[in-house]
Design brief:
CATH class of the largest domain in chain B: Alpha Beta
Order of helices and strands of chain B: HEHEHEHEEHEHEHEHEEHEEH
Structural class of chain A: mainly alpha
Oligomer: heterodimer
Strand content of chain A: under 5%
Helix content of chain A: over 70%
Strand content of chain B: 15-25%
Structural class of chain B: alpha/beta
Number of helices of chain B: 10
Number of helices of chain A: 13
CATH superfamily of the largest domain in chain B: Response regulator
Number of strands of chain A: 0
Number of domains of chain B: 2
CATH topology of the largest domain in chain B: Rossmann fold
Strand order of the largest sheet of chain B: 2-1-3-4-5-11
Shape of chain A: globular
Largest sheet of chain A: none
Largest interface: A-B, 64 and 55 residues
Distance between the termini of chain A: 40 Å
Radius of gyration of chain B: 22 Å
Largest sheet of chain B: 6 strands, parallel
Distance between the termini of chain B: 67 Å
Helix content of chain B: 40-55%
Amino acid sequence: MFKRFFGNIWSAAIAVALAALVCGVVLALAIGAAALLGYPPIRLADLWLRGAAGSWYALSSSCADACPLLLTGLAAGVAFRAGVLNIGAQGQFLLGALTAVALTTRMMIFHQPALVIPTALLGGAVAGGLWGLVAQYLERYRSVPVVLSTILLNFVALYLAQAALQGPLQALGTAAAQSPEIAGKYWLPLFVPYTDFHIGIILALVLAVLLWVVQQRSIFGFEARVVGLNPGTARAMKMPVTARQFQIMFISGACAGLGGAIQLLGQVHFMTAHMGNYGYAGIAVALLGRLNPLGIIISSLFFGFLDTGAYRVEESSLALPHNMANVIKALIILVMLVLAGLSLRKSRRADRRVTAPAQESAP
Amino acid sequence: MKKSSLRPVYGPAAMLAFCMLMFSGAAGIRAAAIKGPLRIAFICSGSVTDGGWNQEGKNAILMVKKKLHAHISILEHISPVRAVDVMRSYAMRGYNLIIGHGYEFLIPAAQVAATAHETKFAVSGADTTKPGVLTLNFDLAQPSYQLGILAAMLSKTGKIGFIGGEAIPSVVACYRGFAAGAKSVNRTIKVAAAYTSWDQPALSKSQAQAFIQQGIDVIYQNVDAASRGVFEAVAQANTLGHGPVYVFGSNSNQNNNRTCASYTPASAVIRLDRAFLRVAVQVKRGTFKPGVAPENLQNGVCVVVLNPKLIGSVITPTMQKAVARARQELLTGKIHIAP
């Protein structure tokens, strides 16, 4: 049992180490490229690091930015691991935020923060999960591929949010498509005062660890992985493939929806339809974390630190465009894909070597 | 069973993620005058090369820098989600004035203003205010009214159209002014409206082409970076002999756009430089006060700029007089545009 447990930890550690190595190499290359463009590399790296983690506030800002990425990354990671190609985290994130804003500005239960905050978080998660189930239903009963339906449902969610923010959820006194500001008593409490360290960050971390445990140590997690690797085998082993796919899609959507709710109650405190591309970025985060929840924690933190540091560099006299951070992220994903491709080719060659002698020796 | 390698089925998802990443912004207290150079931060949600709202904002803030010898920091592509963090960071580093260029920055500005009493906050393009924030409420409805008069006089088909980036208050006000101005000349004129996108020229182009196919021969666009699409559609229509089809610019002076300057008779321009300079001077002198500042025809911030190259040929003296008369009547309050 201990061997199996530490084996799982070991595979997670390898994922984390590989991701860290790739990130480090690409960052070094990026700083080298910036130096070639005329930016002082040491000052650039110094500004970037100080901007991302040079003070308690900077550190909290990076972590708060990583929080929604962690949750949308988990949404993508959990689904991809089970072979459910959920590209709809963006829409699920928006619906989660929309539900949370409705529950904190229009339907406050007894006006008690102890009731309103958990209800809003739960409501956001459920809304995201149900939105994900729509795509899964379309695939199962109407043969619409999940990839297609989730992408299209992102746009439906966006326009639904816009309609709600120009209708029942619109702030009073303005014609702009935005919600009213959430009352301060319904904001997520801070665990370090005067920073952005809100309890949503802890909640997201706990959820990631919980998902890792479920994925690695439970029958449900095992079945979900088998369904992802080979649904035919899973059926042959009498596993409930359809049920698992629906359940995984709900969990995936719930993670993204919770991300939207936490972002709203912990960080932004009002809603417009432009809530950032956390859903799409989550896919990159999940891939960088090798679809492992513990790896996703590290990759989301890396993305959060990269983004926050990049803003500080752009604000400084160096004025290096923030898009540099996006270029770095994209390069990292490319390198990870190349590495994954190489590893896949290597494993196929090994498979061929194993199967070829077996076929020769057969009568 | 292999556990860690990514399966080939993730390829499309990964490439999608890659593409998305690549292409993917103290009320009432009189403060002391500021000695030394003013430190101003300007943040906007789009690109400062959009040829419209954001680019005009950047140009305006650079003009303030030149006139006041101020220290300027510009951040583009800031979403409302990042705005609080960015504004707080500027405030902590001692910036005197932070300008959020768009209504979406109003609530973030108010959140930061509640604790950063040394920094002043201005938000352009909103129609309401919050404690500690000065809102610059641009009224383009008045210049749009003048453009409506010009459009009705230019149109031979009796059909004109408006394309907006998004149905937000300031853009809908443009449509209302445009329609009211056109109907003041021709009661039976048909005014179509469509809202496409701020940054998708292909979308605005197909909308403009649809308008032209319906017989619309004057288009007023307020779509910022997507305006290129409208200009292309108008240029093509005129080349193919569907014309003459005219287009009006907005926010910045788009009369000399590279695509179809000879078919752009006028633009409704927001003189952001005037508004920003006034606010910066108030901060410098210590006379800054939060609230709503109406920016309109009356204080010369929102005006119509006619294309001088087309005066006399496309814009007849009669049209010029009608536009000037409407300006006078708007200034004196004789004409009131219903909200």
